[in-house]
Every structure is written in C-alpha cells, then in structure tokens.
UniProtKB/TrEMBL annotation:
Family matches, as InterPro entries: Acyl_CoA_acyltransferase, Bact_Acetyltransf, GNAT_dom
Organism: Actinopolymorpha pittospori
N-acetyltransferase domain mapped to chain residues: 13-167
Pfam families, sorted: Acetyltransf_1
GO MF assignments: acyltransferase activity, transferring groups other than amino-acyl groups
Protein name: Ribosomal protein S18 acetylase RimI-like enzyme
Entry superkingdom: Bacteria
Record's GO cellular component terms: ribosome
Keywords assigned by UniProt, alphabetized: Acyltransferase, Ribonucleoprotein, Ribosomal protein, Transferase
Amino acid sequence: MPTTTPALTTLDVTIRAMHDGDLWGMGWSGTPGHVKQLADQLTRARAGVADYLVACLPSGQVIGKGGVDYEPIPGAGALWQFAVLEPLRSCGIGSALIRECERRIQGRGLRRAEIDVEEDNPRARLLYERLGYVAYGRKVSSWDDELPDGTVTRIETTCVLLRKDLTC
Ligand SMILES: CC(C)(COP(=O)(O)OP(=O)(O)OC[C@H]1O[C@@H](n2cnc3c(N)ncnc32)[C@H](O)[C@@H]1OP(=O)(O)O)[C@@H](O)C(=O)NCCC(=O)NCCS
C-alpha cells in the first residue's frame, strides 16, 4: 500500500522570466523544432514584444513554461506555448503561470488576454474556461515543425480562440 508523506506533497515553485541558461533543459517541453525556436522567443522577450516565463523548483529545474506575445493582437496579450512537465501536471502550475502572464499583460496597461487551443486538446480548453476564458471563434493554423528524427513536417490544425477581459 503506497503511503504519502505530508512534507513531500508541497511544491515550492518560483515563476520568473526564462533566460538563456534555461534552454539546455527544455527538451521535455516539445519537439526539437519547438525547443530550437525558444531562443528566438527569448530574443523577442529582450526586445520587449513578448514575455516568456518559467516555473522552477528550488533546485532550479524548470518544470513549466509559457508566455505572452504582444505582437499578433493589437490591444491584447496573446498567451501561448504553455507546457508543464508531465508528472507535475494537475498541481496548479499551469494556472499559476497563466495568472502571472495575466499580471504582466495588465502591467502593460492592456485589458484583454487571448489564447488559442487546438480542438483536440479538451483538457487544456477546460482549464482555460475555468480560469475565465470564453470561446469566440475558430481558426486554422499551420506551421513547420522539426521532429525527433530530424525531418520537418507541416502541421495543420484547427484552434478554438478564447479571450478574457482582465478588467473584471
Ligand atoms: C495544459 C497544461 C499546461 C496545464 O498545466 P497544469 O499544471 O496541469 O495546470 P493546472 O494544474 O493549473 O490545472 C490543470 C488541472 O489541475 C487541476 N488543479 C488546479 N490546481 C490544482 C491543485 N492545486 N491541486 C490539484 N489539482 C489542481 C485543475 O482543476 C485541472 O484539472 P484537470 O486535470 O481535470 O484538467 C498542461 O496540462 C500541459 O503541459 N499539457 C500539455 C501541453 C499542452 O496541451 N499545452 C497547452 C497548449 S494550448
């Protein structure tokens, strides 16, 4: 019979901006193509057009990530690229990252957050709806992605568009 030690059930998680030193340890968070483009997102964050955050354990290990892109939607922050290390999902880390992103959006004087979620990701959509996001449309997205075997493939998917008024 497994036992649970109370002291081991609390996660001490810090949320901060991602930096270059985090990149080597991000292999868990997506395809090789995704991990490669994280460096470009850090360049964009330094230029002020995005925020890219990580959730870390006291050891410094990154266990979650996600950010805000300020360029695609005038007047709003577009939340994107959220992922939490699989064994640590459903502990509130994704919600904490999203709330910090919302604070960053408000800190820039913007009043709306938006997020896209693929139609075949109902669990993520339910999480966003629980956090106050409301669906208002759909769009087809496509991009090239590098797979673990080095091949590049075209991904095409339909996303649900959700938004949240941050003034409430
Ligand atoms: C989507 C994702 C980032 C959410 O991260 P997360 O850390 O699991 O999110 P949270 O823990 O805040 O909330 C998710 C679940 O935990 C529950 N939860 C929230 N806080 C909790 C807590 N303190 N204790 C226990 N459960 C909690 C939520 O109710 C939700 O329930 P569900 O498991 O039925 O969905 C994560 O699941 C993930 O990496 N998924 C794969 C990549 C992906 O789909 N990214 C989204 C692209 S749009």
